[in-house]
Design brief:
By secondary structure, this protein is mainly alpha-helical. It has one domain. Helix content is 67%, strand content 0%. It has helices at residues 2-19, 28-46, 56-75, 84-104. Helix 1 packs across helix 4 (84-104), helix 2 packs across helix 3 (56-75) and helix 2 runs antiparallel to helix 4. The longest helix has 21 residues, at 84-104. The chain is globular. The N and C termini lie far apart (43 Å).
Length: 116
């Protein structure tokens, strides 16, 4: 079961790494904020939950999240067969993986340069 989940996460990760420019922000804090907000909103959209769009920043994240949710539904037809709990666990795993790749496991030392 865990292997199947990792395969699904890898498919979604592949889409993000190839199609999403937000992962390339130049500072750690910005990448963390992007990951949290865009992936968090995408999770809520896939679960059919409401998403806050009160601020211009929220709306910016929301647009990326809507686009990503649509792409995931199109490219990952197995999502339709998953329960809400399974989708939530999948998205949590995807968040952890993307956060590792773009922040905590990144070899880009400029991400934490105070003068950059």
């Amino acid at each position: 079961m865990a292997e199947q989940m990792n395969d699904k996460i890898a498919q979604m990760e592949n889409y993000i790494m190839k199609k999403c420019l937000w992962q390339f922000h130049s500072r750690t804090w910005d990448r963390k904020r992007q990951n949290e907000n865009i992936l968090g909103m995408t999770k809520r959209i896939l679960l059919g939950q409401p998403v806050d769009k009160d601020t211009p920043e929220d709306r910016c994240y929301w647009v990326d999240a809507v686009t990503m949710a649509e792409a995931f539904r199109e490219r990952c037809p197995w999502l339709a067969d998953m329960t809400k709990d399974e989708i939530a666990a999948l998205m949590d795993g995807l968040y952890e993986r993307i956060d590792f790749l773009t922040v905590t496991g990144s070899l880009n030392q400029e991400l934490n340069d105070q003068h950059y």
